[in-house]
Amino acid sequence: MNAPMPYEPGSPECRVLIDCKVQIESMLLALGRIDNSQHILDQLLSVHNQLEGLHAIHRKAVAAPLAAGEP
To answer: In the chain, what are the domain boundaries?
Structure first.
């Protein structure tokens, strides 16, 4: 898992994705202390990675107009 993201949403969608990733990170830390939870940890990590991919798409969409000089 990547390091936790700083909370700097560039759009409402990014804010939702960041919030979801933070919640999953908290779940991963808590469940990591429970025996026999590896299967669930793996699934949560997979969902976290999927959210990160979706977040990357949204970050690029927000950054593209800024890079082009659009407001």
So the answer is: 12-67
Q: Report pTM.
A: 0.75
* C-alpha closest to that of 4 among 31, 22, 16, 19: 22
How far apart are the C-alpha atoms of 8 and 6, rounded to whole Å? 6
pLDDT one-digit tens code per residue, 23-66:
999 999 999 999 999 999 999 999 999 999 999 998 888 777 66
CA dihedral 64, 5, 27, 16 (to 10 degrees): -40
